[in-house]
Design brief:
Number of strands: 0
Number of helices: 11
Largest sheet: none
Strand content: under 5%
Order of helices and strands: HHHHHHHHHHH
Radius of gyration: 18 Å
């Protein structure tokens, strides 16, 4: 008879894994590292997470969900376009990822390794389609094409971030927004004109306070 899976046991292992990944990065963290930190056997870790990629899936899901919660709770802004909240989430997530010392090791792993980048992009897109109705698509063919387009947008963004880090130049958020919306334009039901207002609402002070709350929720004591 198979050992029953316990949601609370899985959550604890996941939370421990997130903390280890943050310190060591994805590539340098082994199942044994997670097991040692969680004071459980390696086999138990792999029982709940047979592949390391499943930790990445959980991390992306939790990260984006927390970002959405913080925006809904704390941002004093009324979204008018279906894409507006997703745009605000993208800006906030960008800030949390790039300016977050707690994620330095993980960020460099993702940018350095194409395989890790692909996994992160794929799970981010799954989250978008599962939790939003931004893209009013009627057929599977339309959804597949939209997902491919988003892969192109996010993948291009990662390439741009990597180049900026490699050559030590500042990120141009206006360029990223222009390029992304130009590519996604066919999937928007009406013009999206809230970008400037949202960027103003996400002030540096708001983002710094939100980053603190983000880390408190993401890296819980396990």
């Amino acid at each position: 008879m198979a050992r029953p899976k316990k949601p609370e046991e899985r959550r604890r292992i996941r939370d421990v894994a997130f903390n280890v990944f943050a310190r060591k990065g994805l590539e340098s963290t082994s199942f044994s590292d997670i097991a040692k930190e969680a004071s459980v056997s390696k086999s138990l870790v792999q029982y709940y997470f047979p592949k390391k990629e499943q930790f990445v899936s959980d991390f992306i899901d939790r990260s984006l969900t927390i970002t959405e919660e913080i925006i809904e709770e704390d941002l004093d802004y009324e979204f008018k376009h279906e894409l507006a909240k997703l745009f605000a989430m993208g800006l906030a997530q960008f800030h949390f990822s790039i300016n977050n010392k707690a994620l330095d090791a993980m960020r460099m792993d993702i940018l350095r390794d194409r395989g890790s980048t692909e996994v992160v992009v794929r799970y981010a897109i799954d989250w978008i389609f599962k939790h939003t109705t931004v893209f009013p698509l009627e057929t599977q063919e339309e959804e597949d094409m939209a997902k491919k387009t988003i892969v192109y947008v996010i993948g291009g963004t990662f390439d741009y971030l990597y180049d900026c880090m490699l050559y030590d130049v500042d990120f141009d958020l206006d360029f990223l927004f222009f390029a992304s919306t130009a590519i996604m334009k066919p999937y928007l039901t009406n013009p999206f004109g809230e970008a400037e207002a949202i960027k103003e609402a996400l002030s540096p002070e708001w983002l710094d306070a939100a980053l603190k709350k983000y880390n408190e929720r993401l890296f819980v004591e396990a």
